[in-house]
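Margin note from the TA: students keep mixing up input and output lines. Inputs are the sequences; the output is the structure of the whole complex. Example:
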Amino acid sequence: MREPYAVREAGLPDRVTVYEVGPRDGLQNEKAVVPVEVKAEFVTRLAAAGHRVIETTSFVHPKWVPQLADAAELLGLVEKVPGVRYPVLVPNERGLDRALEHGVEEIAVFASATETFARRNLNRTLASQFEMFEPVVARALENGLRVRAYVSMCFGDPWEGPTPVGQVVEVGRRLLDMGCFELSLGDTIGVGTPGHVTALIGAFGGPSRLAVHFHDTYGQALANTLAALRAGVTVVDASTGGIGGCPYADSATGNLATEDLVWMLHGLGVETGLDLASLVETSTWLAARLGRPSPSRVVQALGETPTGGTADHDVKE
Amino acid sequence: MREPYAVREAGLPDRVTVYEVGPRDGLQNEKAVVPVEVKAEFVTRLAAAGHRVIETTSFVHPKWVPQLADAAELLGLVEKVPGVRYPVLVPNERGLDRALEHGVEEIAVFASATETFARRNLNRTLASQFEMFEPVVARALENGLRVRAYVSMCFGDPWEGPTPVGQVVEVGRRLLDMGCFELSLGDTIGVGTPGHVTALIGAFGGPSRLAVHFHDTYGQALANTLAALRAGVTVVDASTGGIGGCPYADSATGNLATEDLVWMLHGLGVETGLDLASLVETSTWLAARLGRPSPSRVVQALGETPTGGTADHDVKE
């Protein structure tokens, strides 16, 4: 299979951790009902492809995300590989109880950078959302768990326009101060552009403990990732095959596709520990189960035709 | 319609010229037969959206590109707007004769950076291709035309692996020395990554007289564009709605989509003179005529649903 040519770029990290969100953020937004055995195989394949952190599922109430109602069963089926982290999203204390019951070692909480989204998604104000997270984070830490925090709508939301970077920093610092080991700065609606990314990371005083989570709604995810890498970020969220996000069009995408990210990283000579061919194979396998083509450009080019892609043959001018 | 928020990034150009290739590079790779009146309206709409350079068609032999067999007729139909350039691709002296007959003021020639592609596409060796261009460029200049040169396969080709940057520079310099005013460095198969872009522009000694032409086959086009902008390039090729390129999958894309590029540029505070809403409207209009959705993420998000996009509504976690 074709692989990118490595040409180093000055000022980039030597190694990046791809934080794989496909089983959780990807599948929770897919319309298809995916059998739990398929999910378990999906997670197993991701670990085999070299992933060292795979967000596996969510203990959100099944009423809100029926796609992940099998969270407990899935955790029982996944054969954990030593050295691989399997974090689980936990929205509240009830979710934490379930995570503790099932031996989860790392959780993620989900905060909002904007007032309107806090009200609509969390039923809290921007300021009062922390009252919800505090007991979750405190009890998780007491039990020896690691806690990651997502901050959503970091660049804009559908109601308030651009999110002030200072507001994002304020929310993020509160979460770090609680003891979260990492913040994932999310462009939930995909509106951000590279200068905004640079400005936001700068407002935090640098990349320490920051990860980025870009959606490709406006095609900006990979360019924004490049800006984050230049700013020193070394943890990038991505979803296998670009699954999840925007079910309004078959070819539309939500999350940055892991394969497109890995093509860029390996092309830049940045180590990931991931095997691109295995990732493409897994996305092709998963696309057949989801009943729709992967929105990943790399998967489309390399994975979905029996011959391994035909893009090469159409170069006549 | 939603627009990007402008956040300037240091070290980028203040203004970029988008060299629109949709009517030529886009439509020549579309399977649909597009009536000449639709093409004329397409070009008219592009000028109305603010484009100042629109590659309109090609005087290639209709046997090779039947989609553009109506080149002469189209040029007769297009109502030229003062200040807008309407270059035409010219493969050889016969093509130049036709361009001169029809009052074309700017042409583009199409060279190869690799041996195998020169043989397969031009039926020449890498070294002997210049014998084909020399009389074309010389006669065009004698007749007061401006000549742009495409250099294709600048990052890799399907047969030889990565293209040595020194080889690209050698080909490019020959074309500049003939009198071409601009080189468009093409990643014809979309394999390049940002460090490779930086290295190639560096090998030319800087961005002077360079344009970039990225294909999005592996999702890298916009990240590569960002690298080119940082290296000082101020002319970027793009295709309305991302049309053209890879007919092997409905959602696959060849050329960088103009709308996705403009979202990034306006987000970076870079002036283009283009009206994004008009571009999206034109892509939506064209997609209906081509019978397939636009591969542009921006067009998918903003243009293809009656309500102007529904991505906003799916943000529940």
